[in-house]
Amino acid sequence: MNPSTVTARYSLGLDLGTTHCALSWVDTEASDGEKVAQGVLQIPQLTGPGMVEDKPLLPSFLYLPHESELAPGDLGLPWAASQPYAVGEFARTRGAATPIRLVASAKSWLCHPGVDRRGTILPAEAPAEVERVSPLEASVRYLSHLKAAWNQAHPEAPFEQQQITVTIPASFDPVARELTAEAAQAAGFQQLTLLEEPQAALYSWIQQSAGGWRQSVRRGDLILVVDVGGGTTDLSLIAVLEREGELELHRVAVGDHILLGGDNMDLALAYGVTAKLAQQGSRLDAWQTRALAHACRGAKEALLNDATLDAVPVVVPSRGSKLIGGSVRTEVTRAELSKLLLEGFFPPAQASDQPLSRARAGLTQLGLPYAQDAAVTRHLASFLSRQLGATESLEGFGVPQPAAATFLHPTAVLFNGGVLKSGLIAERLLEVLNGWLVADGAPAARLLPGADLDLAVARGAAYYGYVRRGRGVRIRGGTAQSYYVGVESSMPAIPGFEPPLQALCLAPFGMEEGTEAPLPEQQFGLVVGEPVRFRFFGSSVRRQDPVGALLDFWSPDELQELQEIEVSLPAEGRAPGEVVAVRLQARVTETGTIELEALPVGGHERWKVELDVRAEASTQVPA
Amino acid sequence: MLGWPQYLSNRTYPFMSTHRPNLLSRLSLALASFFSILSRPGFAADVERLRREGWPAPAAPVVAPVAPVPPVAPVAPVAPVAPVAAPPAPVPPPQLAPETAALQLLGLLQREARFIDFVQEDVQAYGDAEIGAAARVVHEGCRKVLREHFTLAPVRAEAEGSRLTLQPGFDAAAVRVTGHVVGQPPFSGTLGHRGWRATETRLPKLGQGHDASVLAQAEVEL
Fold first, then answer.
1. Do the domain assignments include residue A477?
2. Which residue has the higher pLDDT, A529 or A75?
3. Which domain holds residue A583?
4. Is B207 within 8 Å of A325 when comparing Cβ atoms?
5. Based on C-alpha coordinates, what's the Rg of chain B?
6. Which of B87, B120, B133 sits opposite A327 (nearest CB)?
């Protein structure tokens, strides 16, 4: 850690969410040990034309208005008299009526390997005259807004001089991590660390317990963090170890990137109610459908939070000024809610279930690789089965999984994300999980009481910045995948057969921030002046492969192919066309991104290997 | 140039009273007057007279709002404008019409609750079920506006229906005595209504040149 990090007064945690952003701070000067002075920044943002309000959450939406759409000054902010776009609440509401000018879910695009993430591609449906932005640029604008909001509220402690932690999904691939760090740098962030969201949620839980967490968990506990946010579902497993008499937390596994969240659920409910209205003879226009989705969200929250309600009336106001005559009234019943949400998204699946992959339901939006199976429970089952061996060689854990276990047995659960604020959904999820555990002869998992699920990630991130200075327990774990480069075997060509591919391990599982992997022996011949691409793989289950291990065979779910990587050796000092032998080396930066470098054999140069290669080569879109 | 009036950077608008009302107290006065004009015809008539006959010289209200009035008398150092927080003092605000806050509140009620649509409509033609359905929209939205923009507290903490005693010098502005009002305090009586007090107001800050008189934009679908 560099010295200025230690002198920064505030540790700031930024939750850069798919649907909302938040910023929390820890005042390290006013904090002592487990007594932490923490708060959440009220973020000034446009809520209407020319109208600025403070809110704890900044909706992650960017609106690109038509030049004559708004009066001059309508987009002014306390720190900028005018800018040609809006982010936050106003962007969200305005964009709902004009989606061709709205950038939403930029974060999901940022981790979409099928597109050029630096390319100006958003809004995806915008007509030619709208000046599009890249997923990267949209993220830069949200982060810049948060920075400006902080600087306005704290002119005495400039953002640039504080210690910053930005959260990312645990399942973010190396390119998405790199792009997030790049967006933060473009927004002028100086001292940056990336932190996985489920870890941040657990840090928030630790902080809220004010030291009591040591009594709530014990050696051998395995904490499952389920984070169902607005746009994504993120799973992580954190083991509780004991080393030298101290409890330690070790993140042992993370799930796949699942584009499935609260927004899908609201949409599903709204579709269900629209169908019901259509049966009753009421047709809704597009404006009313949106109003209905909004009303349904309210009804959903009421029903999910109060188990005694049987039905909640929903009124879709008319668009015109005649409110009384033109409104459509209906209701959402508990039976509908159960059918659409609980059974649709949290069905009582079996532990051996796998997510279904079949034709997509009506929840998809053009372009993004939404999860094909809406059942969170099946994604969870598949994750736990795959990670059966995650704790096998964990030193200090001490509790081996029973030999007959068919999936990894968590002993405690921490929920996070807006969706799991609902008692009914949380209960269902826990019930399904405990059903599996009981069937496997294991004790039921207990629920760790979470706190404010909307803000836990930002709060946990700010707290993490504080404990990084050595003032509290840290979750260890390092990288959640091992990484491999594809090596084509040299053998005589056989018509109709691709040459067999081997995978060379470059980065082992669990590399910590600021460390470098050893240099593998394997050499590659690169042609000077010509970019060369390699196939690149990640594995979330192969924990034992050392650097240099060469795999001849692997099963399809052991290694996932990531985007291709590219190396090009500049021609300086060499003859173009010359073949140079290089070796590839991996390291994890202090920020938390992964870097690959090519080192010519016998030389001292290091060439950066591009992880984010233009998309055209990668045709595969992960489900 | 920011062009953002300094007083607008205050996060909340606590009520306060001074001899020469600053912007914040004028804001509260405007709000209170707005409702008084609606509910009390006599008050409305007085305001009308004041507007007709007793309007102050036009130059005065333009400068007054920002310039932190030098402490004329050794009163407690009220700091209506945060002098520390804001960097270089921005230009004085443009004249903010006194009714802006009232218009802003109406705009919020319309945006969230369709308040104007509802009240402007003739309810005679509709049955209670239809009015009830629309009233849900209005009720939910009005609640949201109250919750987000005001902090409300009862004037009296006692339960309604309980007996209480008003000491001499009680705040007659906050407590209204009714019925057998004779003699000198202490008065004892029954609490009929706890009263409401806005302890905090958080109206959105308005950009320069924002026309608050547009309560709801006309919508044209292209």
1. no
2. A75
3. 482-617
4. no
5. 21
6. B133
